[in-house]
Design brief:
Blueprint: E1 12-25, E2 28-42, E3 47-51, H1 58-65, E4 73-78, E5 81-85, E6 90-91, E7 101-104, H2 118-128, H3 135-148, H4 165-177, E8 183-187, H5 195-212, E9 215-220, H6 223-229, E10 232-237, E11 240-246, H7 247-252, H8 257-263
């Protein structure tokens, strides 16, 4: 499936992306086709939801886009620059793009360093990319980021284990925002949280998007959460996108049997995600 990937209005363009992993079955070497020819495009400031069951390849898509995994084949273009093209043998150094492409991880309990204070966790990307001129400027930037995600200054000297799951995910979001990215892969960022906390975090992410025009690839297994935050939704099944449509169109007129099956198990209602 290919989606308008020649249009310059898109920030990210992905064509026929494949990610195969070598596996061994006894004495036989095989390939696990985790992602098998995925294509989509995302505009600046847009959220594309990527939904599917566990093991369908959705997290692998996100990690491959950020080159945490080396792609097997396909083409990835970001902000007008080709990052990877297997046919043309293009494979660029990702370091210059790390500032622009970030990730919020699924598990806020394991994705934060337990030996670092909140200030140092959020400040680490600032350190890596040398984005400040003095310690005072660094501290001020971190305080601004904490305020953006709803944390207060008293939290700066505390450690991740002292916070709730929702607060930890806010720390992870602040860390991703530190480098002012254009694109964030959100890898099931609310799946480990209670429903009421999910709503708070999702609403926070929508507010941030309005202010910064950041684009999201929002990965989840719950269609109702994806519906609330996404402009368009791609449904992935066994490593392939089986349906891609505007969010409301997909809910009202699903075409693929797998999409229809997913809709039977959605909860909570999108109304529950809205602010009371």
């Amino acid at each position: 499936m290919s989606n308008e990937t020649n249009n310059n209005e898109y920030l990210l363009k992905v064509d026929h992306l494949k990610q195969y992993f070598p596996v061994h079955d006894g004495f036989k070497k095989m390939e696990l086709k985790a992602v098998d020819g995925v294509s989509f495009a995302i505009k600046p400031g847009e959220t594309l939801g990527l939904v599917g069951e566990s093991g369908c390849g959705k997290t692998t898509v996100g990690r491959t886009l950020l080159r945490l995994y080396q792609p097997t084949a396909g083409r990835i273009e970001f902000d007008g620059n080709v990052l990877f093209d297997s046919e043309k043998k293009i494979d660029v150094n990702m370091h210059p793009y790390r500032k622009q492409m970030q990730m919020v991880f699924q598990d806020p309990y394991s994705s934060l360093n337990p030996r670092m204070t909140v200030e140092d966790i959020i400040g680490e990307p600032l350190d890596v990319h040398k984005l400040y001129n003095s310690k005072k400027e660094r501290h001020e930037m971190i305080m601004d980021l904490m305020e953006t995600v709803g944390l207060n200054a008293d939290h700066a000297t505390r450690y991740a284990h002292e916070f709730s799951g929702g607060q930890r995910q806010r720390i992870g979001i602040a860390r991703a925002l530190a480098v002012d990215p254009k694109f964030i892969v959100c890898d099931e960022p609310v799946s480990a949280l209670d429903v009421s906390i999910q709503a708070q975090v999702v609403n926070l992410m929508k507010d941030i998007q309005k202010e910064t025009n950041v684009a999201y690839l929002f990965i989840a297994h719950d269609l109702s959460v994806v519906r609330f935050i996404s402009d368009r939704i791609a449904v992935i099944y066994k490593g392939r996108i089986v349906e891609l449509a505007e969010a409301e169109e997909l809910f009202h007129h699903p075409l693929h049997p797998y999409t229809k099956a997913c809709l039977l198990y959605t909860s909570p209602s999108p109304r529950d995600m809205r602010r009371s």
